[in-house]
Amino acid sequence: MRIGIIYTTNNESTRKSCKILEGKLNAETQLIPIEMAKKDCLLKYNFIILAASAIGGKVQGSFKLYVSSNLKTLKGRPLGLIVNCEEDRDRFSKAFTEELLDSSYIHSNFGYELNPDYGNYIERKKTNKLISKYKKNNENLPTLNIDEIDRFADDINKMIEKRVD
Prior knowledge:
Oligomer: single chain
Strand order of the largest sheet: 2-1-3-4-5
CATH architecture: 3-Layer(aba) Sandwich
Shape: globular
Number of helices: 7
Strand content: 15-25%
């Protein structure tokens, strides 16, 4: 089985979580940044995973454009959906259309983490400001939810085991 993980990220959290997921899947898996994804690339894989970071529940415009341009093909393929954002909120309704959610095999929120070393000067400054806010309020910094990544991988691996070619 071949799995394509098409992702977009704001602060490297989504790429990192997809890399962790890739290592847990019992299949030939390829990570594909949204900038490199093409329509025909969807046809090369038996299972597609779409992953996006969401800030305020909104995903990047390039991700939305890719999904809307390929909606018909995506709905016809086995599909998993991932969002990386605050864990205490359901962001799927803003990140993905109801139509796409309904046609997905599995979806999950992997949480996120702040990376003060990623991005341009302004992005790093914003991230450092957020980190300071968490520390000032004596709150733990957000982290990726490894248990949720494990659950997601286990569900896909069970599907792979049951698959008959």
